[in-house]
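[retry 2/3] Phosphate acetyltransferase: previous attempt timed out, resubmitting with same input.
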Amino acid sequence: LNLDISNIELINPATSELKAELVQSFVELRKGKATEEQAQELLNNVNYFGTMLVYAGKADGLVSGAAHSTGDTVRPALQIIKTKPGVSRTSGIFFMIKGDEQYIFGDCAINPELDSQGLAEIAVESAKSALSFGMDPKVAMLSFSTKGSAKSDDVTKVQEAVKLAQQKAEEEKLEAIIDGEFQFDAAIVPGVAEK
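[retry 2/3] Phosphate acetyltransferase: success.
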């Protein structure tokens, strides 16, 4: 990902001097939903502690999920940070690196079934995430069909999502290529895509 990690600070939630401040902030934020003792206990959890660091502006982001369930990773973010204005749903991304190739898979963990608008929103937000990590976003909207090779309501949904995502990206002047619908192999293997 070409990231400079030379100035990263490691913080241990159990011994951090920031913990008392974050506990108070959490109690205020949750307004009667958590006592100070409950907040103290929750902030022993690295996901809650890390999310509070982001919320307080003391960290730029949080990477989690490899050693924690999706629910344990997402729950603190939903309780503390919520979605950004103009975004109607939470979604996740996975970074996949194969040699020199870098991929973001957007949303393979949170939303079980989406309509066209939801798919489009996640495609655009995933492209924005790619840009924020210095990647050139080329979004392939996946399906079991490649460019109309199969017919079904699910294929139509993805085709509509492609159009909506392209429109949204254009409206937002987002520099991203968004196309589909593609089967995975057609999206990722140039030789298959050419057929």
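[retry 2/3] Phosphate acetyltransferase: The first helix runs from residue 19 to 30.
[retry 2/3] clearing retry counter.
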